[in-house]
Amino acid sequence: MRLNIIAFAAGVFLLQMQPELFPLWPVVLVILVCFGSGVLFARSGDARRRVLFAIACFFVGFGWAGYRAESRLADHLAAEWEGRDVQVVGVVAELPQAFSRGLRFSFDVEKVLTANAALPSRIMLSWYRDERAGEIDPQALESWVIHPGERWQFTVRLKRPHGNSNPHAFDYEAWLLERGIRASGYVRPKAENRRLEKIVAEPGYLLERLRETVRDRFLETLPGGEYAGILVALTVGDQRSIQGDYWRLFSRTGTTHLMSISGLHVTMVAALLAWGVGFIWRRSPRLMLILPAQRAAVLAGWLTGMAYALLSGFSVPAQRTAFMLTVAALALLSGRRTAVSKTLALALVVVLLLDPWAVLSPGFWLSFGAVGLLFYVASERVAEAPGWRGELARWGLAQWAVSIGSLPLLLLFFQQFSLVSPLANAFAIPAISFVITPLALLAAIVPIPALLHLDHWLLSWVMEALIQLSEFPVYTQPVPPLWAVLLALIGIGWMLLPRGFPARWLGFVMLLPALLVGPVRPSPGQAVVTVLDVGQGLAVLVQTATKTLLYDAGPLYSAESDAGQRVVLPYLRALGINHLDTMIITHRDSDHSGGAASVLSAMPVSQVFSSMPEIPGATCEAGQSWAWDGVNFKILHPAVEPPVGNRRIKTNNLSCVLRVEAGGKSMLMTSDIEAVDEVAMLARDAAALKSDVLMVPHHGSKTSSTAAFIAAVGATEVVYPVGYRNHFGHPRADVVARYGDTPSWRTDRDGALIVRLGDGVSVDAYRDTRRRYWFGR
Question: CA of 669: how far to CAs of 539, 551, 686, in Å?
C-alpha cells in the first residue's frame, strides 16, 4: 500500500510541474492497462504485479491532479470582462484582512446582476479607503466594516489571476489556484454597495465567524499587547496577525514552525484532552458501563484535534495531523494496530486527494519530511536507558534528526538555516506547545481576561529569549541545485542509520554538494542582466564575474511591503549575493525607489549613485564610467546643466541612464527619461546610445521613445518593464508601433527577463523557461 501511495503522490507532483495539461483519455487508458495486467499476475504473486499496480497508481495521481486542475481552471474570468464594472451578490467567505489602505477578503459569488457577465465562483476583493481606487461612499462608511458570512451586493472591477514571476520566488498565481480564487479586484465606490444579510448560516461561514470572534476578543483584551497577534495565530491560525518583524525573528531562530498551527500543536491538544477525559472517565463506574475509558479518551482526543484543526483554518500541517489522528483513532477503536508509516501514508493520500496543489507548498515538504524523519529514527534505535536518560537520548536524537534532515529543504526553499535553531527550539517547543498554546485555547473557550494577560506575560519571556538568540548569525548560501538536494537527502538517510552501520560518514560527504555548489557567475568579459518582474516599476540586477550592480529597487506596494523586501532581496539571497558593489537609484518616483530602503538596510552597498540629494552617495552625471571584469559601464544622463529660466526639472528628467557593454554587445537602461532627455542625449553624443538591447524609456509611455532616439539606439531587442493591466496603459500602442518588428519582451507577459551579453545576445523569459499550466489562465 505504501509503495502505491508514494507512486500516487509522485504522479500528483509531476502533473504540477507540467507546462500544459494533457488530455485525460490516454492517462485513463494506461491506468486500465496496468491494473488489468496486474490482475493477470495476481495468482502467481509475481513482483511484476506490484510494479504494474504502482505504475497504475502513479497515473491515477497524475490523472486525478489533471482532472482537478481542468475543473478549477474552467471556473475562470473571461478576458473581455477584465477591468469592467460588474455588479455581484455573494458572501464574505473568510476572515477579512486589514491593510494600510483598506480591507482584503475572499468573496463567494452567488449571483451576477450585470447582464451577460460570468464570474468565477470565488474571487479576492480589496476595499480601499483612498482615492486611488475611489473614495468610499459617505453613506456606506458606517457599514464599511465587514464580517465573514455576511451577504453583500457589490460593484466590482476584476482581473484574471496574475502575480510577479521571478526565479526562486513565491508563485502567487499557484497560491490563488490552490485556494480556488480565480479572479481578483476591488470594490468600486457605488451607492448600490450594501449589506443584504448579516449571517448566512452555513457551516463554513459560521466557523469563519467564530474565528473572527476569537481573534477580535483577543485583540480587544490585549489592546497594547505587543505579542497579541502571535496568540491569535496560535489559536485561530491567522498568521497575518503577526507583524513582519517577528517573522524575521522566527526565521533567524528557526522557530517559524511554532508560530503556525503545526501538527505538534494539534497532537498536543488532542493528547491533553484525551488524557483528561480518560482520567475522569475511569473514576465513574456509570460512564465506564456506557463506554470503556480508552475508547472515550480516543474519541475525545480525536474530536478535539479535529476541532482545533478546523478552528485554525485547516492548513496543510493541521490537515496532515487531523487525518493521521483519524486513522489512528479508527485503528484503536477497531482494536487493530496500524504501523505509523502506514498512518503517515494514508494522511498523505487524503491530503493530496483533497488538495493536489499542496505539493507546491514548502510547508507540505517540511511537514511530512519532519514527521517521516521522526518515524525513521524511532525510539527503539536508542539504546534502552532507564528513566530520564532514555527520554533525554530519544529527545536529543529527534532534535538532531529534524535539524539536520530539514537542512537541504530549508536551503532549497529559503537559502538560510538558523545556527541557534536547536537551542531555540529546546525551550520554545515545550513552552509554546505545552503552556502558551493550551492557555490561549482555554482563553478562547473561557472568556476570562486574566487568562490572556497571563499567557501574554509568559509569551513575552519566550520572545525576549528569542530576541537574544536572534543576534547570532544565520547560515546563508545560494540556492543549491536540485540534484544536490536529492543527494543530500539520501546522505541524511544514510547518516541517520542505526549505530554500528558501516561507513555512515559517507552520508556527510553526500551532504556537501548542497552546501558548496551554487549558481555559476558569468565568465570574465560577460555580463548577465536580470530585469526582475516587480509589477509597474523597475529593478534590474547586473552581474559580472566578481561584481554586482542593482539598478533601481522596484516600487513601494503598500505601507507594509515593497519590491526590495518581496522580490529583490529574495532573488539576491538565492544567488548567494550578500553585498552590492554599486546601487543606482535612478530618480525619486516610488515605482523605482520604493524598495531602496529595504535593500540598503539589509545588506552593505559599497557605492550608491542617484539623482536624489537626500540619499548619501554620488550624484549621477553623464560621463561617469568604470569597468569590472572586462565589462564597461557608462552613465549617459543626466548632464549637470542649470535649468533654463524658472523651468522646474521633473524627477523623470533626472533619471540616471546606464549603458552596459560586454564582449562588444550592449544594453541601454533608460529608467523614466522623456522626449526632452532623449533629444539632449542625441545632441551630446548620439553614437554613445548605440545598443543591442534597449529598455524602453518610461515603460512605453507616450512621452518618450522618439523616432530619432529609436533610430540612434538601433536595438535588436526591446524590453518593456510594466505591470499587468497597469492603470497608465503602458506600453502605449502607438509607442509599440514605433519599434516596428523589433523583437519585444514584457515583464507582465514574460516574467523576469535574463539578458546575457558577451559573445552574443540572448534573452530568456522566466515564464517560458519555467512554464506552468496555470500561467495566464
Answer: 11, 9, 15
Looking at domain 79-200, what is its CATH homologous superfamily?
A: Nucleic acid-binding proteins (2.40.50.140)
Alpha-carbon distance 759 to 564, whole Å? 32
SS3 269: helix
Q: DSSP string covering 435-463, please?
A: IIHHHHHHHHHS--HHHHHHHHHHHHHHH
- Looking at residue 44, its pLDDT comes to 54
Q: For residue 157, which of 122, 184, 181 has the smallest C-alpha distance? A: 184
Q: So what's the pLDDT on residue 385? A: 54
Residues 6+ apart with CB under 8 A from 85: 114, 155, 156, 157, 188, 190
Dist. CA 585–CA 609, nearest whole Å? 6
Does domain 527-769 sit in CATH 3.30.420.40? Answer: no
Pairing of strands 717-720, 693-695: parallel
Q: Retrieve residue 565's grid coordinates.
A: 523586501
Max CA separation in the chain (angstroms):
100
For 230-246, the three-class secondary structure string (H helix, E strand, C coil) is HHHHHHHCCHHHCCHHH
Grid coordinates representing 159 are 482581473
Nearest residue to 636 via CA among 615, 663, 661, 606: 661
DSSP bridge partners of 105: 125
Q: Using CA atoms, how far apart are residues 403 and 736, in angstroms rounded to an integer?
A: 53
Three-state DSSP state, 10: helix
**Measured between alpha carbons, how far is residue 109 from residues 55, 75, 148, 187, 491 in Å?**
40, 12, 14, 13, 50
List average pLDDT for each run of 10 residues in the chain, which is 777 residues long. Answer: 87 93 83 72 66 84 92 92 94 87 91 93 87 45 75 95 92 91 93 91 90 91 89 86 81 79 72 83 83 85 85 72 77 70 80 88 80 68 55 69 82 85 83 86 89 93 92 86 91 83 85 87 95 96 96 88 92 93 94 93 93 87 94 92 58 94 95 93 93 96 94 96 93 94 95 94 95 91
* Distance of alpha carbon 171 from alpha carbon 766, whole angstroms: 12
Cell numbers given for 432: 509554546
Check residue 380 and give its pLDDT.
Answer: 47
CB neighbours of 125 closer than 8 A, spacing ≥ 6?
A: 104, 105, 106, 107, 154, 156, 184, 185, 186, 187
| pLDDT at 501 (0 to 100) | 78
The one-character DSSP state at 771 is -
Query: What's the chain's length in residues?
Result: 777
Phi, psi of 697 (to 5 degrees): -60, 140
- Residue 93 phi/psi, 5° resolution? -90, -30
Take residue 353 and report the three cell numbers written for it.
Answer: 486527494
Per-domain residue ranges for the chain? 2-74, 79-200, 208-254+422-476, 483-516, 527-769
Q: How many CB atoms lie within 10 A of CB 84?
A: 11
Q: Is 343 left (phi over 0), alpha (psi -120 to 50) or beta?
A: alpha
DSSP 3-state assignment of 468? helix
